[in-house]
Amino acid sequence: MNVIIVEDDDLMADLLETVVAGLHPALRVFKAFTVSEALDLWRSRAPGLFVIDWSLPDGTGLDVLRKIRAADKNMPVVMVTGRADRDSILKAAHYGISGYISKPFSVEMLHERLSGMLKAVLPEDTSVETLAEMLSRKLESGLQIPTRMDVSGILGLMERAQDLSGGQLAER
């Protein structure tokens, strides 16, 4: 499932990304720093969850929330903001937020709240392919790994693998 974090502060965006990515291995996190980036990601990534800050360089998190709610009344949206006044909370609630977390917050509380929300959103049969399963599957179709290594040199070593010790292979 895709999750979009809309936060203009780099450090806060990285913290939110770390917390969200650690909730479940099937989550893919995308970050947006402006309203326009958030809306572009929303259209292209079909997220299952939004985590939105209030104050953004080109508008507010409410602008993003309004657009989302016009198309999808059930999308889970969590506001994570420094605004803790009653009016702000009521404005966000008017647009149907799923959660409101005031900054500063404890990472444990954020983790707990988002984890509870994801249990309702993630299908129970969400399985994660292990590395061994993925490599086994890719053996049949091919796996491309970007590298700067000399492929012909690797193929030459593979041909001589029986003549070289493990240490010699690792050295080369």
Global shape: elongated
Rg measurement, Å: 22 Å
Series of H and E elements: EHEHEEEHEHEHHHH
Question: What is the mean predicted local confidence, pLDDT?
Answer: 85
Distance between termini? 41 Å
Strand content: 15-25%
Reading side by side through the largest sheet, how are the strands ordered?
A: 2-1-3-6-7
Unreliable segments of 5+ consecutive residues = none
Secondary structural class: alpha/beta
Number of continuous helical runs: 8
Biggest sheet statistics: 5 strands, parallel
Number of strands: 7
The helix content is: 40-55%
Short descriptors:
172 residues, alpha/beta, five-stranded parallel β-sheet, two-stranded antiparallel ribbon, 8 helices, 49% helix, 16% strand, elongated
How does this model look, in words?
The protein is of the alpha/beta class and 172 residues long. The protein contains eight helices and seven strands. It has helices at 10-21, 35-45, 61-71, 86-94, 107-121, 131-141, 151-159, 166-171, and strands at residues 2-6, 28-32, 49-52, 55-56, 59-60, 77-81, 99-102. The strands form two sheets. Strands 2-1-3-6-7 form a five-stranded parallel β-sheet, with helices on both faces. The chain has a two-stranded antiparallel sheet with strand order 4-5. Helix 2 (35-45) runs parallel beside helix 3. The longest helix has 15 residues, at 107-121. It is elongated and about 75 Å long.
